[in-house]
Amino acid sequence: MPLKVHAAVARSGLILPGQTVLVAVSGGADSVALLHALCALASRYRWRLIVAHLHHGIRGRAADADAAFVRGLARRLGLRCVVGRADVPCLARRRRLSLEMAAREARYAFLARTARRVQADVIATAHTADDQAETVLLRLLRGAGREGLGGIAPVTMAHGVRVVRPLLPVTRADILAYLQRCGLEWREDESNRDPALLRNRVRHELLPLLAERFNPAIRAVLCRTARIFAEEEEWLRGLAHEALAGCLMPAAAGRAAGLSVARLAQHPVAVRRRVLREWLRQNGVPDNRLDFDVVEQLDRLSRAARGSGQVALGGAWTVWREYDRLCLRATAGDGEAQLRSVTIRVPGATRLPEQGLMVR
To answer: What predicted TM-score, i.e. pTM, was given to this entire model?
Structure first.
């Protein structure tokens, strides 16, 4: 098992020699295995490991026990441990998110803050090949496109900090065998058995059924499919970035900066969708506001004969059509919008798109 992690790290260059690694440890089997495997390799690569654990404020005494377990594990390994706490139910209500999505946002925000504070170069999380297979199926059930079906990337950014996933090539069966062989303990999260959660039904019902009735290698097949989609999406994303650069329109004569609808229309729909998503991401709109239906509405707005109209993205964000361009408005609402300074032209006219005003 450590050799599989070693091969993944060496092949992908996930963690460079001498780096400080913040290891996300929930106390479950996957993260305990990740921590022990990285410890086994730390001296060879001169890594400095720091443990991070977030108490989500959801599972009461069980969550308290998880935090205590992780502290004890880090202490036995001689590692520094940072434990944080979040009120995920409150965050979910305030941001109108599912409990699962709110927990994910709180977790990555905590990890990024902690990484900056301890000066970690990367965050390591314990996503596995089984997580990859489950994610592909979940996104297929929800109607994802090529980008979504690319699954979990081995390297991403969270709040400006690099996140790596060394266990993606490793199956959960391998992890459990490793833990049992080494006599290592871990915590079980009872919520992972809750059938009300779609991921749990995919994990415990759908995937076993597919493996038994259709293809015993279904997990490996789904992981391979994710890799193919991700590689092709990388190429398409490059095309979209070039197209976006050609569609941007600067602010001028009191008009807001935006996206040229005429230049956007020159591209095929697959590129247009990616241009719209990337434009919004670069302007701070979170991915959970960019589902397929919203992007389709924006594409229709850009191609409409009428030069006006708007699409609400939810929360603080609205896109409106102003004749030859699409513009983005961010208003105070759910804490996602950012305040910015505006230079007022005197004499002259200055548009304030976030407020929908013109100052003369």
So the answer is: 0.83
**Which tokens belong to 352?**
């304030």
| Identity of the amino acid at 98 | S
Q: Quick one: average pLDDT of 176-198? A: 91
- With respect to CATH, is domain 250-359 assigned 3.30.465.60? yes
Fill in the DSSP letter of residue 157.
E
Residues 6+ apart with CB under 8 A from 212: none
At position 275, the amino acid (one-letter code) is: V
State yes or no: pLDDT of 1 exceeds 70. Answer: no
**pLDDT per residue over 7-39, tens digit each?**
777 777 799 999 999 999 999 999 999 999 999
Mean pLDDT across the chain, nearest whole number? 89
Q: What is the pLDDT of residues 123-167, one digit of tens each?
A: 999 999 999 999 999 999 998 889 999 999 999 999 999 999 999
pLDDT in tens, 220-242: 999 999 999 999 999 999 999 99
Q: In what order do the strands lie in the sheet with 80-85?
A: 80-85, 48-55, 20-24, 122-124, 161-164, 155-158
Could you tell me the residue ranges of all domains in the chain? Answer: 2-226, 250-359
- Domain 2-226 sits in CATH 3.30.450.20: no
* Measured distance CA(224)–CA(122) in Å, rounded: 26
Burial class for 217, CB neighbours closer than 10 Å (0-12, 13-18, 19+) = exposed
Please give the Cα distance from 310 to 257 (Å, whole number).
16
Distance CA 322, CA 304 (A): 12
Q: What is the pLDDT of residues 91-105, one digit of tens each?
A: 999 888 888 889 999
Please state, in angstroms and rounded to a whole number, the distance separating the CA atoms of residues 68 and 27.
9
Contact (CB, 8 A) for 15 and 45: yes
What contacts 24+ positions apart, CB below 8 Å, involve 280-288? Answer: 280/313, 280/317, 280/319, 280/328, 282/244, 283/328, 283/330, 284/330, 284/336, 284/337, 284/338, 285/313, 285/317, 285/328, 285/336, 286/336, 288/97, 288/101
Question: DSSP string of 246-301?
Answer: HHEE--BTTBPPEEEHHHHTTS-HHHHHHHHHHHHHHTT--GGG--HHHHHHHHHH
